Structure formats: C-alpha cells, structure tokens
Automatic annotation (TrEMBL):
<keyword id="KW-0028">Amino-acid biosynthesis</keyword>
<dbReference type="Pfam" id="PF14748">
    <property type="entry name" value="P5CR_dimer"/>
</dbReference>
<feature type="domain" description="Pyrroline-5-carboxylate reductase catalytic N-terminal">
    <location>
        <begin position="4"/>
        <end position="86"/>
    </location>
</feature>
<dbReference type="InterPro" id="IPR028939">
    <property type="entry name" value="P5C_Rdtase_cat_N"/>
</dbReference>
<feature type="domain" description="Pyrroline-5-carboxylate reductase dimerisation">
    <location>
        <begin position="163"/>
        <end position="264"/>
    </location>
</feature>
<keyword id="KW-0560">Oxidoreductase</keyword>
<keyword id="KW-0641">Proline biosynthesis</keyword>
<dbReference type="Pfam" id="PF03807">
    <property type="entry name" value="F420_oxidored"/>
</dbReference>
<dbReference type="InterPro" id="IPR000304">
    <property type="entry name" value="Pyrroline-COOH_reductase"/>
</dbReference>
<dbReference type="InterPro" id="IPR008927">
    <property type="entry name" value="6-PGluconate_DH-like_C_sf"/>
</dbReference>
<protein>
    <recommendedName>
        <fullName>Pyrroline-5-carboxylate reductase</fullName>
        <ecNumber>1.5.1.2</ecNumber>
    </recommendedName>
</protein>
<dbReference type="InterPro" id="IPR036291">
    <property type="entry name" value="NAD(P)-bd_dom_sf"/>
</dbReference>
<dbReference type="InterPro" id="IPR029036">
    <property type="entry name" value="P5CR_dimer"/>
</dbReference>
<dbReference type="InterPro" id="IPR053790">
    <property type="entry name" value="P5CR-like_CS"/>
</dbReference>
<comment type="similarity">
    <text>Belongs to the pyrroline-5-carboxylate reductase family.</text>
</comment>
<keyword id="KW-0521">NADP</keyword>
<comment type="pathway">
    <text>Amino-acid biosynthesis; L-proline biosynthesis; L-proline from L-glutamate 5-semialdehyde: step 1/1.</text>
</comment>
Length: 278
C-alpha cells in the first residue's frame, strides 16, 4: 500500500522529515505539507517540489498525518484534523513529533479509537542521520508502530521505547544536536583565542565532532575507551579534561538534561487535558 504522508507544520523538524524522505526516494506526489506561513510554504515547494496546502486538504487521503507544530499549536490542528472524515479506504494514522504531549492528549482530541504514534526525532534527519524514538498509544497496533519505524528508518536510526522514557529521550537525542553545536561553538571560539582563523577553527571542530561521532557509532568501542585512546599519559588531552571536569562539565550535563526533561513535563502540565496525560 502507498504511504501518503501529510506533514502539518513545515518548520525546522517538518522540513528535516520532508528533506530526509525526499532524499531517500519517497515520491513527492505522496508527500504533502500544511504550512500556515505562505512564504515558508513557497520555499518548501521551491526546494523540494512538494505540494503545500491547507491542513484539511493535506490530511484528506493521507495514510500518515505527521504533526510538526509547536505544542501550543497542537490543539487547533487536532480540531481541524478531527473534522476531516476518514475515507474508510485507508485508516489514518496520526504521528506526533511534538515534545512533551502524551499520546493520550491526541487520543482525547481525535475521534474515538484513532491510532496515535509518538516520535522524538532530531534535526540530523535533514541529512538522513536522524535518531528517532517511537512509541505507540493505546489504539496503535504493533503494525502501526512498525509502519512509522520503517518510514523513519529511511531517514536515520530508530528505536521503539516505552512512552514513559520519552522525556529522557528528548533530553538526550531530541535536543542533543544543540549540545553538540554548542560544544562546536565553544571549541571554535577557543581555537580563535589560540590564534586560528575562524574558518580553520570551524573546519577542525566540525570534522572532529563528525569523526568522533562515526567512531562512537561504528567502532564498537565505548566512549570511555575512545577517550582513553586520545589521552596520552602526562599529555595534552589529560590537561584539558582535568580543566573540563574542574569546571563541572559532567555535572552540567546531568543538570541540563534534568532541566530538559522537566521542560517536557511542564509542557504536559500546561496542556488542557493534562489530567488525562500519562
Ligand atoms: N526542532 C527540533 O530539533 C525538534 C522539534 N521537535 C518538535 O517539533 C515541533 C516543531 O518544532 P520546530 O520544527 O522546531 O518548530 P518551527 O516553529 O520551526 O515549525 C513549526 C511550523 O509549524 C507551522 N504551523 C504552526 N501552526 C500551524 C497550522 N495551524 N497549520 C500549518 N502550519 C502551522 C509554523 O508556521 C512553523 O513553520 C515542536 O513541537 C517540537 O517539540 C521534536 C524534535 C526535534
Ligand atoms: O526544544 C524543543 O522543545 C524541541 C524538542 C526537542 C528539540 N527541540
């Protein structure tokens, strides 16, 4: 069966999914975007050759409706989607990329029994290198979950998790690219401070982070072993790591990720049907 995907919200993560799917060969005739900002919609059509239209039109005939709007915009979108009759020909699967809000939140707003799958992706989806975690709601079957997992495998790696782990996943991988970019910024500024040009420092930092990432995913070695391999006795790396630890690097990550998970919980608490959220 053809998977016809409607992406509601053509912002950063909506575009990342669109780009990843187009790059992986998903036919653009089976992709449609609903984007309320007309200029942004035109950009997406120009870049990817995809049709951009109103939510109700996008959803009609879609087998998978992906919500890629900010949490505050979710309920308005759900109201519109709920008003679009399922053709009966194919069951519509709602997939949310939104942080914080639980599957129960969507189930409460959609017609009774509507299947919902929640995903926490990240922006490297733009280049087919996403890390996505997937979880099914009450009415989602294993087949629904695996349909979404298969779609996302075309744009990166996928794991299936329990919904209670979603806030932790958001803290580690959903927001994770931002920590890597912050580290890159800090390394570049420090390199410039040591006399490198910004262009050279940027190249050095970016390729180093990329190479370290590939070693981490492909070498089968732990980060501890990989770090040890760089750290010569009484050498330069040991000095740098001593300074990073003295400045609370590890503790900063614990606290940062706890704050991130707390922010996901706060999004749920602020949602109108919070009392139903799991
Ligand atoms: N940016 C990221 O790295 C990640 C974001 N997410 C989740 O994805 C969601 C979207 O985030 P971003 O893409 O960063 O936000 P964004 O602000 O870049 O994109 C949201 C888009 O939705 C559009 N929009 C809002 N209401 C609409 C409506 N009623 N109809 C059509 N379009 C509408 C906006 O014009 C905007 O282009 C958030 O809920 C966030 O939690 C999840 C994982 C990673
Ligand atoms: O910052 C946010 O809320 C979203 C969720 C994960 C990444 N970006």
């Amino acid at each position: 069966m053809t998977t016809r995907v409607a992406i509601v919200g053509g912002g950063k993560i909506g575009e990342a999914l669109l780009s990843g799917l187009v790059r992986s060969g998903h036919p653009t005739r089976d992709l449609v975007v609903a984007e309320k900002n007309a200029a942004r919609g035109a950009e997406l059509t120009e870049e990817y050759g995809v049709r951009v239209t109103a939510i109700a039109d996008a959803v009609e005939g879609a087998t998978i409706v992906v919500l890629a709007v900010k949490p505050a915009d979710v309920d308005g979108v759900l109201e519109i989607i709920s008003g679009v009759e399922d053709t009966g020909e194919v069951e519509r699967l709602t997939v949310s990329l939104v942080a914080g809000l639980s599957t129960r939140h969507y189930e409460d707003a959609l017609p009774a029994g509507a299947p919902v799958v929640r995903v926490m992706p990240n922006t490297p989806m733009l280049v087919g290198e996403a890390m996505s975690a997937v979880t099914g709601g009450r009415y989602a079957t294993d087949e629904h979950v695996s349909t979404v997992a298969t779609l996302l495998e075309s744009v990166g790696k996928v794991i299936v998790i329990a919904e209670k782990q979603m806030d932790a996943v958001t803290a580690v991988s959903g927001s994770g690219p931002a920590y890597a970019f912050l580290m890159a910024e800090a390394m570049i500024d420090a390199g410039v401070g040591l006399g490198l040009t910004r262009a050279t420092a940027t190249l050095l930092a970016a390729q180093t982070i990329r190479g370290a990432g590939v070693l981490l995913t492909d070498s089968g070695l732990s980060p501890v072993d990989l770090r040890a391999a760089v750290t010569s006795p009484a050498g330069t790396t040991a000095e740098a790591i001593r300074e990073l630890e003295a400045h609370g690097f590890r503790h900063a990550f614990y606290e940062a990720l706890r704050a991130n998970a707390g922010a996901s919980a706060a999004l749920r608490a602020a949602a109108p049907s919070a009392e139903n959220d799991g």
